[in-house]
Amino acid sequence: MNHRNISFVAVSRGPLDKLLAYQKRMGWDFPWVSSLENDFNFDFQASFTEAEIEAGEVYYNYRQTTFPSSESPGASVFAKNEAGEVFHTYSCYSRGLDMLNGAYHYMDIAPKGRDEAELPWPMAWLKRNDQYPD
Description:
Structural class: alpha+beta
Largest sheet: 2 strands, parallel
Oligomer: single chain
Radius of gyration: 17 Å
């Protein structure tokens, strides 16, 4: 993607040392930064305050809704012009992120589809690469 002037960075609210240890465990090599000490995730509606959770609804996926945790998935896109100004150009959440999970594309055309209704949460079927039996 760098040849097309595109960069990817993962942002998580965990401590950086824990993120980097997990990244090493999984064998990942993309840039990963911590937003633990700033409001980035809150600004882009991917994290929710205790007050929001206690109120029973949070602003997620462009609407007020209930959400089962204080963290949610999201993807945002930014552009930088020649003057160095950065602009937020796009965000998506929830089912808008399905394109990032190639397995869902195959599940969606299979006879039983995603078949997640009986699972404790969507994607409970997923395991980390070091959790599968040898």
